[in-house]
Specification:
Number of domains of chain A: 2
CATH architecture of the largest domain in chain A: 3-Layer(aba) Sandwich
Radius of gyration of chain A: 27 Å
Largest interface: A-B, 78 and 78 residues
CATH superfamily of the largest domain in chain A: NAD(P)-binding Rossmann-like Domain
Shape of chain A: elongated
Strand order of the largest sheet of chain A: 8-7-9-10-11-12
Largest sheet of chain A: 6 strands, parallel
Oligomer: homodimer
Structural class of chain A: alpha/beta
Amino acid sequence: METMTAIIRRYQHQRVTLVEAGATRHQSIFSGLKALAGDHPHSKLPTPTVVIIHDAVRPFVEEDVLVRVVTAAKDHGAAGAIRPLVSTVISPSTDGYLEQSLDRAKHRASEMPQAFLFDVIYRAYCQCSDHDMEFGTECLHLALKYCHTKAKLVEGPPDLWKVTYRRDLYAMESIIKDKISQQICVVMDTEEEAGCLGFLQGLLQKELEVKGTSVALCPNGQGLQNVSLGECYNFVCINTMNADFHQTVKLLDGLGSRAPSLFYPVTVVSVHFLDSQNVLFSERMKALMEMKDFAKEVKNRNVFLYGVLIYFTQDNLQQLQENVRQGASIITSLIKDRSAGLTGQLLIA
Amino acid sequence: METMTAIIRRYQHQRVTLVEAGATRHQSIFSGLKALAGDHPHSKLPTPTVVIIHDAVRPFVEEDVLVRVVTAAKDHGAAGAIRPLVSTVISPSTDGYLEQSLDRAKHRASEMPQAFLFDVIYRAYCQCSDHDMEFGTECLHLALKYCHTKAKLVEGPPDLWKVTYRRDLYAMESIIKDKISQQICVVMDTEEEAGCLGFLQGLLQKELEVKGTSVALCPNGQGLQNVSLGECYNFVCINTMNADFHQTVKLLDGLGSRAPSLFYPVTVVSVHFLDSQNVLFSERMKALMEMKDFAKEVKNRNVFLYGVLIYFTQDNLQQLQENVRQGASIITSLIKDRSAGLTGQLLIA
């Protein structure tokens, strides 16, 4: 209860009431239903027409499927998401031999979310046997058995799967990384746009877009407020020729109070175009040290900062294009991997 | 057939015979069985006592479970791997309502591998109806239906799951990366061991081991042959103070003809300890350029090369330890992520 209370406070949820769980799935669900029936000791909750039951281990539930089960529940009393079976289901004998094999085409996996007319599912739980309460796993079954309500079955998307094994955690992490890598916001200084730098910016933007991500432009950080409020987790910040961080610092300040970084790390790539002639090593090291210090500081706010240096010589256009292409490839790698261990690094294209 | 022939040639498999597949699962399996019954036009294969049937979409099958199903098949005529059900299985009516919900505790998912006495499964397929051949999904069912052989069910590990959706590909990739990141081989120059560098090497080794990976030492590349022949996909190569690549080049040459890189990319991290005083930028850039060129070259052999520079000043022990710690953290990030886009980069601790 403490952990959940802390989570609710942290993410500022307003419409959540916690109810203590039971020892089994059905006992826990019944506790929730009782609270909605007006049985909760601390708060008087209104009793809903339709109630949704969902598993926390199915984190990728979209509004669309919720709407479909709720609508179906309203019409038919009960509804649940289903998926095709991936493996054949069999029933074993008590001594471990094949007893019967079920026709895969005639069966489905019952998934969540499920929705019920409150009255139906509450009556079902009130009549539920001790055996059902202890060993049962299926709410649709209770509605059928105790209220003779045949649930309407709704085809759900594959992402509704139940995160069960270690491999499911891996899959979940990759799905999230995939999802938050689709949009990149490029912030740049337009004062330089007329010259060579403008050309480089254009080139870089084109390379990033080719990789299948949507790229939004924020000249001088304008429009950043709109992007920030959205779902963008990736910022590429182009700084001027000298190795300063002016634009990046401004961006990091702007990101300071953003909500998204609460959920997932926000990636900021500070890009520096540098003339490869006559740059001293000491200067380069100083820039790197600043980058590392910055990176350490913003990591506390769940922002991962990386640097990318794109070298160019004014007289070699082909080399420059190749370097920009490499820079884009490095940037997309950084955004895709979101490696905590590589924050503060200055990579060179 | 061409693709499979190319794969067999590439990985030098000696005991594989290809048989053309059918339009359905059962037709394909029957083709394979016919070939083993001596029906194959090109080669006369010996008919086995026991035959194993497996899905290519379950790549993580271990010898242990194969032995168990084969042994059980020898004793009982048929055997197959099973797993507990993750979701409840239901049967829908034709108009999409819940008809019946199965008791999850009394059912299992039937997985692969399965094994059979050749005689049992071949007879079953010979008698198989057209309907079974077209719509059936379960070999154990055929052995039961046509030969009255009740398969022995063997509990399989979770990694036997069927790679079906995009998320399963993600999971698969992470499982492989996890598996090949467990062992790191550190190659170093022992001539320097007496001095400060020896101390640094020891420190680095300790840091890497802490991360839960096993670390093998190869002074001067000795014993590398043993490691190479094993399952090691990660090499950390420590070079001497000046920024040359002597040790790394020797290692890369040694890896030239290794088999593992055929399957998965081999990671080589070239570590350079560098005194932070008086190193010129131009020298640094030269080293980086060499690293990039090397990386490009060895990438063709499926070797990912990265550089890590660990700075130290002789008089600041605390700073040095911190930098070595950071170096270890960067190295483990590189090995864990195996990013193709970051090869050739020189990262700085």
